[in-house]
Amino acid sequence: xxxxxxxxxxxxxxxxxxxxxxxxxxxxxxxxxxxxxxxxxxxxxxxxxxxxxxxxxxxxxxxxxxxxxxxxxxxxxxxxxxxxxxxxxxxxxxxxxxxxxxxxxxxxxxxxxxxxxxxxxxxxxxxxxxxxxxxxxxxxxxxxxxxxxxxxxxxxxxxxxxxxxxxxxxxxxxxxxxx
Length: 179
Prior knowledge:
The protein is mainly alpha-helical and 179 residues long. It has one domain. It has eight helices and two strands; from the N terminus they run E-E-H-H-H-H-H-H-H-H. The radius of gyration is 16 Å and the shape is globular.
């Protein structure tokens, strides 16, 4: 069965995301690149990096906000409060990278549940894929290890965390674009 793709445009002029939603035609699987093009992913990456770089938001917050924007703001932007405790490995505890935590939260906007006992199709798979991509790229998910040789707030620390925020955002947008 074939269907016409629906193209959605989001209002934020800095990101102008476009998402194709539709069925694969002629029994051919559409690839991720067909669903969300690289340019959109890169714009999302740059937007999240810019939020962090400017000091507007930290890693988990930036990933969450850009993903919410990508999805058409299904939750109010005020929900970013939920992501505010995750930077610097959960409030400076040095545990799981805040960008990764924010990324899993962002995936929950689409795949999470709102009713007790409801199914969460795709949530665990998407979260695991995000984790696995992070580990493949960075080897560790622990903020304390990722920043071991860096002074908190130093230019080197900022550069690394901005890059990680962008990487996770790109992965999240790609994963959200799969369905």
